[in-house]
Write a structure and sequence with these properties.
There is one protein chain. With 266 residues, the chain is mainly alpha-helical. The protein has 9 helices and 2 strands. The chain has helices spanning 3-14, 19-37, 66-97, 101-104, 111-145, 151-182, 186-203, 214-222, 229-263; strands at residues 47-49, 52-54. Strands 1-2 form a two-stranded antiparallel sheet. The two termini are 23 Å apart.
């Protein structure tokens, strides 16, 4: 069974799932809440952060780029990690939950190839949610003040969203892989990932910790957080280690399945 057929089969299965609709609704809800919060007036000294600026006496939304910049951490802390873990764990355990693994074992299918397809789809899902956030915020910014949005500014934020979506996948990959091996309930995985993400808020307050905590490391790698090259390299290595750990658990799960097939056990 080739990879194209595997992708097609997995995408067909998703038509019966509401996970994608839940994730899209969560993104729109987050964007809506922050839009309402942006109607408040900013009081304080003028702040410049890279190409971004905040000016006294103006509504938050009236500052070009504020909305695109503000939605990003909220999505990366509270929405995308949990939804990505939910999506990945749902794909990983659905055969066991729906008792279709026995049928799959009758066709020439390598479990490791099936898991690779599921993880690639999960990566694309994470990037897709991040791009949805970018699309919503960019269209809102364009309606409010298109004349203040430079191409370099939009490209910088687009890059942050893309790299952030990739980074979030790596940050939660070990959780998905571990849950797949232990056949954990999808919603318990979602709850654990949300707690894991919220702890990132506290990790971000400790300068020595935020480079090593996977969720906050994403902000260094994406460029959202201004950091030295050394700190970015540390964060990138942390996320790569998360990827290696996830691969190790995925392969362990597939080895266990092959062992069951050889022994003829269920």
């Amino acid at each position: 069974m080739n990879w194209r057929n595997l992708f097609w089969a997995e995408c067909r299965k998703l038509r019966r799932s509401k996970v994608i609709l839940i994730a899209v609704a969560a993104v729109f809800l987050t964007a809506g809440i922050l839009f309402v919060g942006g109607l408040e007036v900013y009081h304080g000294s003028e702040v410049h952060y890279g190409l971004k600026a905040m000016r006294d006496g103006m509504r938050y939304l009236e500052n070009a780029g504020w909305y695109m910049d503000e939605v990003q951490p909220w999505a990366f802390f509270f929405v995308i990690p949990g939804m990505t873990a939910l999506f990945g764990s749902y794909l990983s355990v659905r055969e066991q939950e729906e008792d279709t693994m026995k049928s799959l074992r009758l066709i020439p299918l390598r479990e490791i190839d099936l898991m690779r397809v599921k993880m690639i789809l999960t990566l694309l899902f994470s990037i897709g949610l991040s791009m949805l956030c970018f699309g919503i915020t960019f269209l809102t910014e364009a309606v409010l003040h298109i004349e203040d949005l430079s191409a370099s500014f939009v490209f910088m934020l687009w890059k942050e969203y893309v790299l952030g979506g990739i980074g979030i996948f790596f940050a939660v990959f070990p959780i998905i892989a571990f849950a797949a091996g232990r056949q954990k309930n999808c919603w318990s995985v979602f709850l654990f990932t949300e707690i894991y993400s919220v702890f990132g808020l506290f990790a971000g307050m400790a300068d020595r910790v935020k480079d090593f905590y996977p969720i906050t490391a994403v902000f260094n790698v994406s460029g959202y957080q201004i950091a030295s090259m050394e700190r970015r390299m540390i964060s990138a290595i942390v996320l790569l280690l998360c990827g290696c750990l996830g691969i190790f658990w995925i392969r362990k799960k597939c080895d266990m399945i092959r062992g069951e097939k050889r022994n003829g056990t269920k």
